[in-house]
């Protein structure tokens, strides 16, 4: 009984390996030689002349260059001016400690 089982498994695996080899071998051959097979089947008997495409000649217009200010950036646009900062500090100090009065 055991001998029949192992023999059947061996034959089963052997047949499976042969089927897999045939499938993968066929796909490998088809991939490797498919370009020559396709071109021979698609090409007509007599080659025809190919036309070259016409190129379009258009001038590329570039916009005029603008004078770029190196100090013009997002931080400088969002940040307040120095005078405003000094005035805000003075106002905050006056609110915290009151106005400076001399006796």
Describe the structure.
The protein has 103 residues and is mainly alpha-helical. It has a domain at 1-44. It is built from 3 helices and no strands. It has helices at 2-42, 74-78, 82-97. The termini are far apart.
Q: Which band does the percent of strand residues land in?
A: under 5%
Tell me, briefly, the overall form. Answer: elongated
By oligomeric state, this entry counts as single chain
Order of helices and strands: HHH
Radius of gyration computed on alpha carbons: 43 Å
Weakly predicted, low-confidence segments? none
Structural class: mainly alpha
The total count of helices amounts to: 3
Distance between the termini: 120 Å
DSSP strand tally: 0
> Main β-sheet: number of strands, strand sense, barrel status?
none
The residue fraction in helices comes out at 55-70%
Write down the overall mean pLDDT.
Answer: 79
Summarize the structure.
This protein is mainly alpha-helical and 103 residues long.
Summarize the helices and strands and which ones pair or pack.
Elements: H1 2-42, H2 74-78, H3 82-97
């Amino acid at each position: 009984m055991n001998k029949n089982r192992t023999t059947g498994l061996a034959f089963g695996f052997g047949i499976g390996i042969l089927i897999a080899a045939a499938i993968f071998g066929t796909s490998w051959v088809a991939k490797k030689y498919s370009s020559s097979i396709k071109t021979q089947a698609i090409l007509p008997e007599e080659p025809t002349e190919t036309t070259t495409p016409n190129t379009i000649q258009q001038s590329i217009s570039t916009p005029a260059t603008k004078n770029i200010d190196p100090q013009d950036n997002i931080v400088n646009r969002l940040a307040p001016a120095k005078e405003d900062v000094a005035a805000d500090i003075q106002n905050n100090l006056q609110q915290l400690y009151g106005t400076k009065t001399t006796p």
